[in-house]
Amino acid sequence: MDNRVKELRKERRLKQEELAAKINVSQQTISRIENGENSLPADILIQLSRFFHVSIDYILKMSDKRLTEEYWIEFQQFTENHIDICRMYSALNKRKQNLIHGLLKEMYEDEKA
User: Any idea what the CATH number is for the domain that residue 48 is in?
Assistant: First the structure.
């Protein structure tokens, strides 16, 4: 696929109209960008970068590095926290694991309600 905006949109299984609504532009604007008819204004470029969590350089094909540095840092922190939780949970005996599981399930159900 030649156009990174189109590629990213299709990866998310979004229609042009859906992407347009998410970044507050018209479907025609998305279509023109994807067809190379419009250059990318800075404000739309920033919105696309934030929405897709990719670098502006990636959208402009100046780099093949997808993730923004901020998102990568956030992702690493998120992953490290979850690994720590999994390690602690795994170190518990079965009875305590069942208690934790029950408590999490109860809290989750409570949040959904």
Answer: 1.10.260.40
